[in-house]
Amino acid sequence: MLDSVEVTSRVGEILTAHKGMEGSLLPILHAIQAEFGHVPQAALPIIAQDLNLSKAEVHGVMSFYHDFRENPAGKHVLKLCRAEACKSMGADRVAAHAQKALGIEWHETTTDGRVTLEPVFCLGLCACAPSALVDGKLVGRVDEAKLDSIIGGLK
Amino acid sequence: MKIYLPLDSAAVALGADEIAHALHAHAKAKGVDLTIIRNGSRGMVWLEPLAEVETPTGRMAFGPMALADVPALFGDLAAHPKALGLTDDLPWMKAQTRLTFARVGVIDPLSLADYRAHGGLKGLERALGMAQADMVAEVTNSGLRGRGGAGFPTGIKWKTVSEAKADRKYIVCNADEGDSATFADRMLMEGDPFTLIEGMAIAGLACGATKGFVYIRSEYPVAIEVMQKAVEIARAEGVLGAKVMGKGPAFDMEIRVGAGAYVCGEETSLLNSLEGKRGVVRAKPPLPALQGFMGKPTVVNNVISLASVPVIFEKGAAHYKDFGLGRSRGTIPLQIAGNVKYGGLYEIAFGLTLGEIVDKIGGGTASGRPVKAVQVGGPLGAYFPRALFDTPFGYEEFAGKDGLIGHAGLTVFDDTADMLGMARFAMEFCAIESCGKCTPCRIGAVRGVETLDRLGRGDASALPILTDLCNTMKAGSLCALGGFTPYPVMSALTHFPDDFSTQKEAAE
């Protein structure tokens, strides 16, 4: 569990670093997520006060975007592209394989907290589809065998 | 020894970093003095990772490189198993007209000296000697239209902003390239970031704007990193800052990162996101050109539109306009993707037919099966059957066939594609990504999925409902997300009726 004093002090530093920036809320939320791995609820009122917004407005922005997490993800995040170019090369089959291998559906985390599986709509790797993003590492031409070796490597 | 090896995301996704590592290790073991330049991609994705070795006769290409191919690069190059010959002589490279992408893959993306040596900043130098109205006229005369998909004349947009009176104006680059099958923006930003910076600086001069933003989607980590570094270099070298190129008015830039919302590629939604709000679409008017970022006059242009500006200023509007077809002037970076043998980026004048692009350049499917459909213009574009392969690539030509060219991405599907499934996916995607502001999109997309499921179960009475729903979405949505989702749905239904009827028979 995150220490609320720690959250308050780090969020305060992040807010100071973004002073004077036009439309700073997204960069602030990105910085907080980079720091904690998710956006702790305790951060929202602090951001709201600093930017002169209501807590509801900050929550509204955070919840609008797919990237921001309310809760920590698993130790590893596996994102598989579900978009058209990847589908034309068998992304649906690969995704079904991943779900079976991990025993989870989209947006879920394995019970041991090891892997979170998420869909992504296009990584711009459409000429070497299907594609994946494994903890920030791009992978092209993902098939079932490659996926097994990726999942096996996530300890 | 000098080797070029792309830092481009596609090359990295296919193992370029591992190849670079192996090259360094091997050179060290052999005592070879090796320099690796991490360049942009030449666009031949099926050959990535593509290594190029500098030789007295030119750059020799080797690809697709596997780790096992690394040692032989230090031996007799002509005998290398992956030797392709000189890069410039490859048919894919020779047949193109690279104006916007002239430097991508050629230069070191983060070397301003290399950029200058290849014609960079000449356009900006010329613009600095011109009056604002002449700069705008140059863009208008080039015939450049918005490459993001809408095809609105760029010069007219600039004119509106240039003539607007305000204490602050902005240039916003839309780099939220979320359409499947498109990666031209990404490749340009990764391979030649200074071109985009130069284009934005010219836009700033022409419109009297002093601040620019590039809004890049978070799914593009490499592009974000390269652009951030490039802006810092451009600032340090005096290209950007209080005086553009040390003599002009002020113009500076900031890189902003999106957060996974497809709808933010729509310009008004993007502006809201940039302002730190929910990425909800704004009703127009007011036009962003008059009331855009923070309510101030704002140019919102796509990456490729802005990146085409430097060459227009360097070589003149007439040079650019001479390429093309009808009202589609200049060149277009085609992105050939999906189930295709030779996928990648191919810049050429407008006017090739869809069949030439898919069969000749793309070489048909990767699976070797017959081509069934090509989706042109991303997830909001129509599916084209073989019967329409004679359609020439141009804005009006595709509109005339109930389609669109969008950002010029093409996804090829072989005969195993299930078009009812693809139509359903279009509706599902719209439902997931809808910003929720307008009813036809927010509710229509959900109803669309349900209706297509009914059709899938063989309920033919759902057909008129689907058609009616698509008409409502098309006419009543605020932006292209809800408004264009009917394109893939209706084109699948119109051109591939068998996929819809087979499902019915199966259910009966």
From TrEMBL, chain A:
Gene3D superfamilies: Glutaredoxin (3.40.30.10), NADH-quinone oxidoreductase subunit E (1.10.10.1590). CDD domains: TRX_Fd_NuoE_FDH_gamma (cd03081). Binds 1 [2Fe-2S] cluster. GO terms for molecular function: 2 iron, 2 sulfur cluster binding; metal ion binding; oxidoreductase activity. Its cofactor is [2Fe-2S] cluster. [2Fe-2S] cluster binds at residues 81, 86, 122, 126. The keyword ATP-binding does not apply. The keyword Ligase does not apply. Pfam families: 2Fe-2S_thioredx. Keywords: 2Fe-2S, Iron, Iron-sulfur, Metal-binding. Transmembrane segments: none annotated. It comes from the Bacteria. This is Formate dehydrogenase subunit gamma. It comes from Tabrizicola oligotrophica.
From TrEMBL, chain B:
Keywords: 4Fe-4S, Iron, Iron-sulfur, Metal-binding. One of its GO terms (molecular function) is FMN binding. InterPro entries: NADH-UbQ_OxRdtase_51kDa_CS, Nuo51_FMN-bd, Nuo51_FMN-bd_sf, Nuop51_4Fe4S-bd, Nuop51_4Fe4S-bd_sf. Its cofactor is FMN; [4Fe-4S] cluster. Pfam families: Complex1_51K, NADH_4Fe-4S. Belongs to the complex I 51 kDa subunit family. This is NADH-quinone oxidoreductase subunit NuoF. It comes from Tabrizicola oligotrophica.
